[in-house]
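Students often ask why we bother encoding 3D structure as a string. The short answer is that it lets us treat folding as translation between two languages. Here is a chain of 518 residues written in the first language.
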Amino acid sequence: MTHPPGPNRPSAPGIAAAFEFLKGMAADPAWQARGELPGVRVLARLSGFSHFTLWKALRRAADAKLLIVAPGRRPRLPGRMREGALAREPAPDGPGTGMRRWERVRQEIERDLLQGVYMHGEPLPSLKELQGKYQVCYATLRKALRDLERLRRWLPTPPRGQADVNRHFVVYLAWGDDGGNLHFDEPFDHEYLKALRSACERLNLEPAVVVYSYRGNDLHLVMPPGASLTFPALCRRAIGFLIRTACPRDVCADLLPQLARHRKPMAVIDEIGSPSLPDLSRRNRLIRAFVPTISAASGEIMARHLLACGHRHVALISPFRDAVWSRNRFAGLTATLKRADPGAAVMEYSLSMPYHQRHEVRENRAFRLLRRSLLGTAGWKSPLPSLQGVASQLERETHLAVRRERILEALTPRLESALMRKDLTAWVAVDDDTALLILEFLERRGLRVPRDISLVGFDDTAEGARRDLTSYNFDFERFNHYVLRYLLEPARVDKEKAQGMRSPEGRVIVRGSLHRAS
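And here it is in the second language, the structure alphabet:
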């Protein structure tokens, strides 16, 4: 027997309409960023349905795996939280918390501004929508927005306010010269900087590049040409510092104490295995080390991929055996292969060449003759910039070519030994640059990849992609998003780390240089 709908018995069409309302809320990017919807009371006020009808619709949404519904908690979005955003519990109010309700709301709105929930220059939601999102009354919300207006984080232009008038900075410090120009010595420097700018844009932040350089034993900080702010002014407006250690010296010991006086979070991208960084991070809770390129995780992931392709007999090739990143990559790869198959054959063919050494070119006299010939030719004016640029470009390219040839010459006996082992089905190069040298060696021997041997590398450089090389990509954009989250909320990311959550890992980009072992 069916009962007619009454005041306490919602109709099926009403529940279906409320369910569609919840479905639309769950698909809204603003609510996805928070990872949860408002409470039932606020949802009922926003939707116009009764509490009972809305609760029935919530149970239907839970059965459909659209929401996670638990008594006493807000409805949550399973697996729908935007990557890098945080599902935050509301801060308590009352005596002993040290924060009034309007201050908490202002802090939450500002955090959402910084994390990109509201994009730069775009209108904020209506006041009614903000009331529902932050679960506050109109007076409390207006007080929070007035304080944001005072801080120049929000501009009350009709019909709605405009978000984030004055974006915050992230100070990016990297190795360069006294002219403020960055050194791009690592194979992925350009990709890293591009990924950093992209991650900052998504989080509504402005990256400010500052160069550190050495004059003798003295460290100097240089603002890039055309910078509109001084370094102290930049530090005052910054949310924190992002430091890369890709430098022939241990810059952490000289640089981090200088930055510590600003009392801002410091994210150190350690690429050399700095000996002073562990002690500095223990003594200063605002220093956090990140080791994406020197950890063993990349070797472990590459080993799992090789095992999936049937490769259990591999050669490990590196000209830079003593570099921390080289040792760790091979340690992770070897341990994973051996753990999966105790009978796996892992042969190492390596050298101990210094990675940061720049080999001198002995043909300096030829460069002088070339420059004199170009600049002294009749009809060509000596100060012509293009000719100076040609000479400089030739010298730089020849330096790189000579260095590559010397590495290949030293590595050739090891590669010849590896060719003698017919059971090795794959060669693993320590980085893409080494893999490209190996390709050149194999071509000179009349061998082809992957017909005769499979070859993989690390770093996923543009030249490696052009040569169809399977390589490990560190996914710098995703990693930078994680690092910037630390600068925005150090305590939250440290809590995640204490709970065992790891930083984002990269992935193997499969191309034509790797085939399945027969």
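Translate back mentally: Residues 385-420 form the longest helix (36 residues). Keep this in mind for the problem set.
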